[in-house]
Amino acid sequence: MLAALRSRKSAPQGDRLNFTRSMAADLARAYNIEDLRRLARRRLPRMVFDYYDGGAEDELSLQGNRAAFERLRFAPKVLRDVSRVSTGCEILGAAANLPLVIAPTGGAGFSWPGGDVALARAANAFGIPCTLSTATTATVEHIAEQAGGRLWFQLYVLYDRDYTAKLVARAAAAGCEALVITADLATGGKRERDFRNHFEVPFRLGLTHILQACTKLHWSWNVVTRGVPAFENLRGLVPPGKASADAIASSVGRDIDASLSFEDVARLRDTWKGKLIVKGVARADDAERLIRTGVDGLWLSNHGGRQLDGAAAPIDLLPSVAAAVGGRVPIVLDSGVWRGSDAVKACALGAQAVAIGSATLFGVAAAGEPGARRALAILTDELVRTMQLCGAASIGEITSDLIAS
Ligand SMILES: Cc1cc2nc3c(=O)[nH]c(=O)nc-3n(C[C@H](O)[C@H](O)[C@H](O)COP(=O)(O)O)c2cc1C
Questions:
Q1: Pairing relationship of beta strands 94-96 and 89-91 according to DSSP bridges
Q2: Which atom of ligand 1 is nearest to the CA of 304?
Q3: Closest approach atom of ligand 1 to CA 305
Q4: How far is the CA of 302 from the centre of ligand 1 (A)?
Q5: Residue 298 vs residues 301, 319, 331: alpha-carbon distances, Å
Q6: CA quadruple 176, 181, 184, 187: dihedral positive or negative?
Q7: How do residues 55-110 score in pLDDT, each as one tens digit?
Q8: How would residue 254 be classed by pLDDT, with cut points 50, 70 and 90?
Q9: What domains can you pick out in the chain, each with its CATH number?
Q10: Atom 13 in ligand 1: which residue has the minimum CA distance?
Q11: Ligand 1 centroid from CA 400, angstroms
C-alpha cells in the first residue's frame, strides 16, 4: 500500500516526460477530490472537462448524489481500540485491500494518453478491482496486458448483437473476472453541456474547440503527438444511423440497444462463466428479479447523475434494497462517492463496496496514473480516519448503528 502512495516515482515509463514537476507539486497539494477536480479543469479544454464533470438536464441527480451523502451523519462509537485499522475486505468473493472499485468511465484517454491503463494500474497498486468500460480508449486486451490485477468488464449491449457477443468473448479471453451489464442507458441522457460544447465522439474539432485547445498546451501537445483518442473496443462497429435530421446531436447511447431485457441478462448468465453483475439497479423489485435470474452482484447507480435526471441518489435507496436483498448477493454502490467517509456510510447501510467514477477520472485528467493514485490515496486516508473516528477497527465493524437516525 505504501508503495502505491508514492506517486511520481511510480509513473509508468512512457509517462515520465508527460508528468511534469509542477504536476507533482500540484498533486502533493491536492488534499481532496475537489482539489483534483480543479486541477483537471485547469488542464483540460472545456469540452472534455464538461464531458467528465457534467450531468443530465438540470443536473439535479448529479448534485443530489453529493447532497444525499452529506445529509447522513455518524453516531460514532468511542473508547474502542482503533490503534490498528484494517481496511481489508471481500469484494465479489475475492480479497481486496479496500471496499472500493473503480467504476467504468468511457473516454478516460480523452484527458490523458493511456488514461484507461493509468486507472487500471492504480487500482492494481491499491489492491482493488477496476471495471473497464466498453468505451475505453484502449482495447480490453491492451489494458489487461499493461495493468493486470482484478479486472471487470462493463458491457453496453449494442444494437449489433454479434459485435456484443464478440466483446464478451474478448473480455473473457483477456481474463476479466466479472461482466458488468449496464442497464440504465436505454438511451443517452440529455447532457446539455455536451450539446453546447458540440462534444461528439469521435471528436469533430471546430474552430471553438481549436481555440479552447490553444490555451491548454499540455493537453494539445498530447493530442498532436499521440493522436486523437477513439473507442478502441468499438472499432469497426457501424452506427445504426437512426438519428433523424432534427434530433439533438449526441453520440451518447447511439450504439446501444434499448430493447435490453431481463431475458437478455438470463442469456448472458448462461454464456458468461465468471461473475455477473447488473449496474444501474435502483429498486428492490428489479433486484429480486435479477437475483432469480442468477446474477452474482447488484450495482446500485444512477450513472453519476448522467442519465435520468431526477433519479434518486443510490445511497438513499440502499437501505430498502439491502433489506430486500438480505445478503443473498453483494451490493456495490456508486454515484457521488467523493470522500472516504462516503464509503463508510455506504458500507454501514449495506453495501459491500463503493465504486468511484469521477474521483479517479479527475485524478487521471490532472496528472495521469500518479493522479489516479493520488485520488485513491486521498480516499484511503479519509476512509481510515473515518473508521478510527467512528470506532471501527475493521470493515466488519462498520455497522448500521454508526449512522445517526
Ligand atoms: C466521464 C464518465 C464516463 C462514464 N462512462 C461510463 C461507461 O462507459 N459505462 C458505464 O456503465 N458507466 C459510465 N459512467 C458512470 C460511472 O460508471 C459511474 O456510474 C458514475 O461515474 C458514478 O458516479 P460518480 O462519478 O459520482 O462517482 C461514466 C461516468 C463518467 C463521469
A1: antiparallel
A2: 23
A3: 23
A4: 9
A5: 9, 14, 5
A6: positive
A7: 999 999 999 999 999 999 999 999 999 999 999 999 999 999 999 999 999 999 99
A8: confident
A9: 2-192+269-402 (3.20.20.70)
A10: 105
A11: 27
